[in-house]
Known about the structure:
By secondary structure, this protein is of the alpha/beta class. The protein has helices at 44-51, 72-75, 93-103, 108-121, 137-149, 167-182, 194-200, 218-221, 237-247, 273-284, 299-307, and strands at residues 4-14, 20-29, 33-37, 59-64, 67-68, 78-81, 155-159, 186-190, 203-208, 211-217, 227-233, 251-255, 263-268, 288-294. The chain has 11 helices and 14 strands. The strands form 3 sheets. Strands 6-7-8-3-9-10 form a 6-stranded mixed β-sheet, sandwiched between helices. The protein has a 4-stranded antiparallel β-sheet with strand order 2-1-4-5.
Amino acid sequence: MSSYAIETSQLTKDYGDGRGCHGVTLSVREGEAFGFLGPNGAGKSTIVKMLTGLIKPTSGKAQIYGHASGTIEARRRLGYLPELFRYPDWLTGEEVLAFHAKLCELDRITAKRRIRQLLDEVGIGSRGRDRLKGYSKGMQQRLGLACALLGDPAILFLDEPASALDPVGRHEVRELLARLRGQGKTIFLNSHLLEDVEQLCDKVALLNNGRVLAEGKLSEVIRSQSIRRLHVSGYTPLAAERIRQMLGISIAVTLSETGDGTAWLELELENDEQIGLVNYLLIELGLTLYEVGKVQSRLDEWFRQAVTGLEHRGERR
């Protein structure tokens, strides 16, 4: 069996109108969480549909654990949650899962156990006995995730799995996906919620107009863990230059618009211990440190910089 859970080589889908994707080559190792990013209309869903065997490529190839996408061997290893899905609203959550259990050819005992387990894991619980017409969008999203997990797949393809959830629900789904990754599941995640991608994924790729612009480990794409933001008073250009000389690091300075001498300093530090040295230097230079914080997200900044100035076909009218 291939060490790669997902592999594509020059994968192309030509719809004849400039859409689709062109020459996409990706590799995702078993047990990795892979974030697939891009503007609307970039071609992300087209690629996922080829990987899951829902549509055939014009050229190139895609493999799931060494098996051609779309084959029975490949489909047995995956679960899929599409961005847009709809279940009959006269069914209960349990009935929807029971129907999918038959599609997965689960025996009755296994199906009953898995349904009960997944309803609890995704946060539906006893409401699995309610009809779907009473479900919110978030509840339906949770049910879709349970359906994707029902066959205990090795790979999960998730297209905007938390888009309809409130912040609490997003956190719960993120925790569930983190547990699944810890169990060795491979996760292929399409999401516009870059915070979720940043907290969950090991690798990311950025797609625009059907072509991959960048791909790599998340730690290489962003280095948010080393960026600290300090709010100081009494700032002068001499202070920034002194810190640069002492630590040999770059500093980005944002002066307060009030002109009161306060400023925000962004420094790329090697470790938290350097914060103490920076504070010592600030005191020595007569500055006061009001607060210091870790920059929480840089993935959105990287995303914006990568696509700024480019045409996005999803914006066409």
